[in-house]
Amino acid sequence: MGAPLTQYDRDLGKRIESFSKRERYSQSKMAEFMGVPIERYKRFIYGEAKIPAEAIAKLIESVPVEPDHILFGREGGVMKLTEYLLGCSDKERAEFHMEMARAYRRREENSGIDYKVDNKTIIETDTKTKRR
After folding, report:
1. Confidence (pTM)
2. Which of the two residues, 71 and 115, has the higher pLDDT score?
3. Which of 38, 70, 90, 113 is the residue whose CA sits 20 to 30 A from 6?
């Protein structure tokens, strides 16, 4: 069994529910986006179950939402993430980081934009035209 639910877990479920209502996605569609049965999705949004990193990654990959908004809300994101990760086991932390890295990579590949760091500057290149 994983770590107990934290306030971050409950807030994450609320942000996902808020996003689904704002974008008019049904609970069954959101469950489909996250790759989970609807009953499990309901447990996430009602703050009854921890949302696995893989389900968050699938959601971020499937819908047009800023990952930072879903993961952290509008403010205080770093502290909330820190609180969440401190409540995880080493295995859960590693899984979270790997799933988020995969989601960002898939999103980047699908966008046609490549981001690279060059001398501490982020360079955005359109991979289709190779223009900066």
Report:
1. 0.58
2. 71
3. 38
